[in-house]
Amino acid sequence: MGFFGAGSTPAVTAPSATHPSAPIPVQGPGIGQGLRVPLGESGLHVFPLFLGGSEFGWHVDSGAAHEILDAYSERGGNALNTADGYSSGRSEHIIGQWMSTRGVRDDVVLGVRVGTDPDHPGLGPVNLIRSVEASLTRLQTDRIDLLYLDATSDSATRLEDTLATAEWLVESGKVRSVGSFGHTASQLVEARIMSSAGYPRMTVLDVPYNILRTREFDGDLRLVAGAQGIAVTSSQPLEHGYLTGAHRSRERVGSSVRGVQLAAAMNRRGARTLRVLDRIGEELSVPPAAVAIAWLLAQRVIVAPIVNVFAVAHVEEMMQGVGVRLSRTHLAEIARASE
Q1: When you count CB atoms within 10 A of the terminal residue's CB, does the N or C end of the chain come out lower?
Q2: What predicted TM-score, i.e. pTM, was given to this entire model?
Q3: pLDDT the model gives residue 32
Q4: How is 174-190 classified by DSSP, letter by letter?
Q5: What's the pLDDT tens digit per position in 287-316?
Q6: Cβ atoms of residues 289 and 238 within 8 Å
Q7: Strand ranges in the chain using DSSP code E only, listed in sequence order
Q8: SS3 breakdown of the chain: % helix, strand, coil, rounded to 5?
């Protein structure tokens, strides 16, 4: 079938600057737009890879961030993640501006972690409401689809008081569902008991987790998440970027905070793991980062890792991991290397 309708004659136009052999531009929705998975019992459906905004407003300026968001959306992504403490709120502002100018708010599942805003710290009733209101203003929206409660920001407020406030936020329509960050396994059990009294359920858990970082999640936390049907959106899926394979020398990572984080992974175990990711990636014709993402999605409780990127080129690398299926042999190789 041609590009014109049957029997029609194309109009005469001025010569195009595009060479005749140039690739035909992609038309229509991104290939990932039809790929949506349920986010536990939250009622939300997401592309199985969240795009995180922790670098927006810090290492990535507004223009570059909008290009990254465009690239993710064009490929079918619909899940964004940010926090009130990222870049003093600039991350939320950049994402809000992008959603507003593109007119895509209803197409996006928006996850926001609160509790670390220095103006409204912690999860006490007053500060929690103020944090949510401030986030809504910066994001230029009337609702947060998934509100992560950051337990690491507040050890004084009772869980019951936090959930009672979250209940009001849900009932008022400002929040659709509630998630957890930093809660212990026993606190998640306590929260589930409270849900029988009418408090909102914590249906999603964000926990730092990747091939090289399993200790924080494996154990009681993983058992509770699995038993309660809590969906896990793992943050730090690439161990601060080390598992992309772009950083392999201690001498070249510098002494910044991120350089120190990268250097911590540069040991025999890390090098051994990266070599296996290289080999599998070569076999499957994908970058090491995609293999690392595929490994996470092969873990039953992981629904959608949260990836933070610095450039448009990184978006495609990460999103390739959603389409990769690792064999049992691949998973066994990775397990041996990362021991």
Answers
A1: N
A2: 0.89
A3: 78
A4: SEEEEEEES--HHHHHH
A5: 999 999 999 999 989 999 999 999 999 999
A6: yes
A7: 37-38, 45-46, 50-52, 79-83, 109-114, 144-150, 175-181, 202-206, 231-232, 306-308
A8: 45, 15, 40
